[in-house]
Amino acid sequence: MPAAKKFLNDPKDAVVESLEGLVAATPHLQRLDGFPGIKVVFNDDASKDNVAVVAGGGSGHEPAMAGLVGNGLLMAAAAGDMFASPSAEAVLAALRAVTGPAGALCLVLNYTGDRLNFGLAAEQAKAEGLQVELAVIQDDTALPDPDMRRGLAGAVLAVKVAGAAAAAGRALKEVADAARSAIDNLGSVGVAATVCTLPGSQPSDRIAEDEMEFGLGIHGEPGAFKQPVEPVKSLVPKMLETIVAKKTGYLTLEQGSQVGLLVNNLGGSTLLEAYVVLREALHHLTHSMQVRVVRAWAGTFLTSVDMAGISISVMKVDDDRLLLLDAAASAPGWSSQQAACQVDKKPRPVPQGREAQESFQRPQELSELGQRLEKGIQAACTALGNAAAQLDAWDREVGDGDCGATLKQGADAVAEALSSRLPLNDPPATLRALASTVGQAMGGTSGAIYRILFTAAAGALAKSSRADQLSSQAWTQAFQEASETFSQYSGARAGDRTMMDALLPAADAARKSAESGEDDNQCLAAAAAAAKSGADGTKGMKAKKGRSSYVPEGVLASVPDPGAQGVAIWLQAIAECCAP
């Protein structure tokens, strides 16, 4: 099996080159230059008057830890190779670079190499006269042995608390106490669908396609157990119950406790997924566990390279910890936005436009014009329903295969509205009601297309002085204006192999027929014939717009454009039903 594809040069240079890119893009960051083992990023704008908070660890967890270097967060971060602890020399270099008389606090994730190298560096720094404290972050709650608690994404919240305490000018012991108290009130758990893949390595098949792994570490270490894939609504409660399980004693939450919630993408998941998880976690914490979520974040904070996974961290907060979490901070890996959380925020009603304000209703008695409109609309709906299978068959060749189904969905909604919602004696209002109906019933491009057409035609007809006595010229003018309006918004013209190849010729033929003095039926017949000719002419035409523009030209030679054929079908149905 070949190595996983990555956007890198030589994998062994990836860490240094990544740090160089980060520093180049971030004005306040600087990098120490020394022998190859020194990979340190520090805040070049910060004063040494306050306690320096220093962290680090193996690379592959970006944006942590180097991305958390900034005002109100870390003063410096020491990076190791991929998933490997930084050397004691690198940590010591970081301490020497940023530690002033106020001293430094080292935040260390609970991994053996990190503890040893940070511990050695701390002792060496003390021997040089620096004041150094060390706090170990161990927020993993998935494993049964408390001594095995690894550091997970909850470390980001511990960094935030410690960095804010330092920025506030607190003494070293106070900063360390704030950090340790935050860690003691913190729990995290992660779930993944795929294992991470290091640069230059082969992808792992440890997790099957139909499995998730619960409680694995940020280096891809095996978790507590594997389980079948399940939806978030059942997975998230299981994760939260693990964090606050009373038998483990990891995190105790009484009813009414205040907590901060952090949902973290482990690298290969999406922000869409993270917010779905956040939503479910908010609901479960609030309504099932009956605790108050007062702060919440979702995003990418501490990753495991490209692991498709999500972790949840919960931190119990008091007034002081909340103050520290809210304190201003700026770093590439930390959002400065306020994270105040409103769990049951009610959505506002949709702003109401003219369509919603109008009360569309079918008249008790139909005028002659109303009867003709009803007859034509019913015929168009029936014809589109009958042609759905053929339109879908064409669309499977040149599009996404749902043109007929989508048009039938809209036609069915219009047919249902005929009996109650269409004010058929008033043509402009009828067209506005049609726009509203298809807009709600038809999704995607087709819904927008027909809504624009009906809305524009309604506006054009409304210019006539008597809506119940519309001339052929008024109808054909409205048809033409609607077609041209859609062409303006879509950018499609005749010859682009779209529905415009039926609409524009039909509108032009209807206009010419009306100008020559022909009646409504003759205008409709002319329009239908032109639409059919235009739609048939799309077979073999090179596509310049729409989904067909991505299809090989050889396929287009034998298939007409489905959207254009749809126009021809409903126009032909109207013309036939209205013929004398």
TrEMBL record:
<feature type="binding site">
    <location>
        <position position="114"/>
    </location>
    <ligand>
        <name>substrate</name>
    </ligand>
</feature>
<feature type="domain" description="DhaL">
    <location>
        <begin position="371"/>
        <end position="576"/>
    </location>
</feature>
<comment type="similarity">
    <text>Belongs to the dihydroxyacetone kinase (DAK) family.</text>
</comment>
<comment type="function">
    <text>Catalyzes both the phosphorylation of dihydroxyacetone and of glyceraldehyde.</text>
</comment>
<dbReference type="GO" id="GO:0050354">
    <property type="term" value="F:triokinase activity"/>
</dbReference>
<feature type="domain" description="DhaK">
    <location>
        <begin position="10"/>
        <end position="334"/>
    </location>
</feature>
<dbReference type="GO" id="GO:0005524">
    <property type="term" value="F:ATP binding"/>
</dbReference>
<dbReference type="InterPro" id="IPR036117">
    <property type="entry name" value="DhaL_dom_sf"/>
</dbReference>
<protein>
    <submittedName>
        <fullName>Uncharacterized protein</fullName>
    </submittedName>
</protein>
<dbReference type="GO" id="GO:0004371">
    <property type="term" value="F:glycerone kinase activity"/>
</dbReference>
<feature type="active site" description="Tele-hemiaminal-histidine intermediate">
    <location>
        <position position="219"/>
    </location>
</feature>
<keyword id="KW-0418">Kinase</keyword>
<dbReference type="GO" id="GO:0019563">
    <property type="term" value="P:glycerol catabolic process"/>
</dbReference>
<dbReference type="InterPro" id="IPR004006">
    <property type="entry name" value="DhaK_dom"/>
</dbReference>
<dbReference type="InterPro" id="IPR050861">
    <property type="entry name" value="Dihydroxyacetone_Kinase"/>
</dbReference>
<dbReference type="Pfam" id="PF02734">
    <property type="entry name" value="Dak2"/>
</dbReference>
<dbReference type="Pfam" id="PF02733">
    <property type="entry name" value="Dak1"/>
</dbReference>
<dbReference type="InterPro" id="IPR012734">
    <property type="entry name" value="DhaK_ATP"/>
</dbReference>
<feature type="binding site">
    <location>
        <begin position="58"/>
        <end position="61"/>
    </location>
    <ligand>
        <name>substrate</name>
    </ligand>
</feature>
<keyword id="KW-0547">Nucleotide-binding</keyword>
<comment type="pathway">
    <text>Polyol metabolism; glycerol fermentation; glycerone phosphate from glycerol (oxidative route): step 2/2.</text>
</comment>
<keyword id="KW-0808">Transferase</keyword>
<feature type="region of interest" description="Disordered">
    <location>
        <begin position="338"/>
        <end position="364"/>
    </location>
</feature>
<dbReference type="InterPro" id="IPR004007">
    <property type="entry name" value="DhaL_dom"/>
</dbReference>
<dbReference type="GO" id="GO:0005829">
    <property type="term" value="C:cytosol"/>
</dbReference>
<keyword id="KW-0067">ATP-binding</keyword>
